[in-house]
Amino acid sequence: MTIRIKITSREAGPIPSEALVAIRTVEGVEEVVVHASQATADSVEAGFIGAEGDRVLIELPRETVSGRWRVWVDKKALA
C-alpha cells in the first residue's frame, strides 16, 4: 500500500528529474534522492510496512544517503 510521508525539506537532486528530500524519522532526519514526480513540496510517496504504537514502518522509494530502505516514522508524519 502506498502512503505519503511529510518531508522537512526538498531541494534539487543530482539530475533535473530528481529531488533530494529530508524525512524526520524516530531516529533523526534521513535524506533520500527520489524521482521528482514522487515528491511534492511537503510530502513523498512511501510504502506502508506496518505499525507499532505511535510509529509506522515505511519503505522508501530509494535507499537513503545513510543506506536505509526502511525507517520508522511517527504517525504524525503521515500526510
What would you say this structure looks like, in words?
It is a single chain. The protein is mainly β and 79 residues long. The protein has one domain. Helices cover 0% and strands 57% of the residues. The protein has a four-stranded antiparallel sheet, with no helix packed on it. Strands 2-3-4 form a three-stranded antiparallel sheet, with no helix packed on it.
Explain briefly what this protein structure is.
With 79 residues, the chain is mainly beta.
Ordered list of secondary-structure elements with their pairings:
Blueprint (H helix, E strand, L loop, with lengths): L1 E5 L2 E4 L5 E8 L2 E8 L7 E10 L2 E5 L10 E5 L5
Antiparallel strand pairs: 1-5, 2-3, 3-4, 5-6, 6-7
Helix content: under 10%
Q: How many angstroms does the end-to-end distance come to?
A: 14 Å
Average pLDDT, all residues? 95
Q: Rg to the nearest angstrom?
A: 11 Å
- Structural class estimated from helices and strands: mainly beta
Uncertain spans, ≥5 residues at pLDDT below 50?
A: none
Q: What does the overall shape look like? A: globular
Q: Give the ordered list of helices and strands.
A: EEEEEEE
* Biggest sheet character: 4 strands, antiparallel
Give the neighbour order of strands across the main sheet: 1-5-6-7
Strand percentage: over 45%
Number of helical runs?
A: 0
Number of strands: 7
Number of discrete domains: 1
